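1st attempt posting a full record on here, be nice pls
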Amino acid sequence: MPRKTNLERADSRRRPVVEIRAPRSRPRVDFTLESLDFKNVNLLKQFVTDAGRILPRKYTGLPAHYQRRMTRAVKRARQMLLMK
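the predicted structure (as tokens):
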């Protein structure tokens, strides 16, 4: 069900205006699970911010098992001093 704004909730006598949200497109995963390795730094840098923080699934759009594998690979690459 679409959300209503605070203005719409307060004024219940009027017909509520409904926000229509566009569906979020799912990004295609164009790499294999085997390529998610701690040595593949160029691929891992796509999922890390400039400050070095790992992006959540909400932004990466990866499936859960890819996200877990990617997180593990980033942490290993940090320990091996391949990434910041």
